[in-house]
Amino acid sequence: MDDKKATIERNAAGIARVCHEANRGLCLAFGDISQVSWEDAPANIKASAFDGVVYALDHPNATPESSHDNWCDFKRLDGWTWGNVKDADLKTHPCLVPYNELPPEQKAKDYVFQAIVHSLMLKEDKTAVIERNFTYHAPKEGQPARYTQLRDKAKELALLIIELTPASREQSVALTHLEEAMFWSNAAIARNE
User: Fold this and answer.
1) For range 108-123, the mean pLDDT
2) pTM for the whole thing?
3) Rounded to whole angstroms, how far apart are CA atoms 188 and 71?
4) b/e map of 110-128 (b: 16 or more CB within 10 Å)?
5) Do residue 94 and residue 160 come from a single domain?
6) Alpha carbon distance 97, 71 (integer Å)
7) Between the CA of residue 170 and those of 4, 53, 124, 155, 165, what are the distances in Å?
8) Confidence check: pLDDT of 82 > 80
9) Does residue 187 or residue 128 have the better pLDDT?
10) Are 37 and 111 within one domain?
11) Same domain for 111 and 147?
12) pLDDT per residue over 169-193, tens digit each?
């Protein structure tokens, strides 16, 4: 397994835990005491949460309805069927129905689940950006010549700004922004190739 896939799976497992605990909190708020903590949850419950996270990551524009459909598919493949009462031993669940038949509090779970996944993945995406931005990028073939070309053109414009404008705060700001533009142009090459 490559490092990126391992990182995604590790992150998905952590997010699944958060989603499970949020779902447990909602259940308690609605009077359902059947949910156990993540630590005490059986493997099939953890696998269901993990599958839901992976589905949300693979389908970032999924609706709560399609998330629920995915959950139903997972449960049915695991041997669960519809039942009036949630029973882990009998593998029956009253939410194994089409999404539009769910009561509002059950629909809320799908919204909360997706919000958690997307929020935490945004954090992971930012972490990846920080990793990329604060890592040294050794020049690759052809890049040094392009860096030099950008620096030479920026230097040419900087000299023109000094020649044509009076020494002032505005001139200083123009030179600073030109220098920043040169830095960002070089970073675009270094970080994205």
Assistant:
1) 86
2) 0.60
3) 41
4) bebbbebbeebbeebeeee
5) no
6) 11
7) 46, 51, 39, 18, 9
8) yes
9) 187
10) yes
11) no
12) 999 999 999 999 999 899 889 887 8
Overall size of the chain counted in residues: 193
In a domain, 138, yes or no: no
How far is Cα 94 from Cα 30, in angstroms, rounded to an integer? 15
Residue type, 5: K
Return d(Cα 70, Cα 119) in angstroms, integer. Answer: 20
122 and 150: one domain? no
Domain, as residue range, for 159: 143-192
Task: Give the pLDDT score at 13.
Answer: 86
In terms of domains, do 12 and 93 share one? Answer: yes
Query: How many domains does the chain contain in total?
Result: 2
Does 123 share its domain with 172? no
Looking at the domain assignment, is residue 48 inside a domain?
Answer: yes
Residues 183 and 165 in one domain: yes
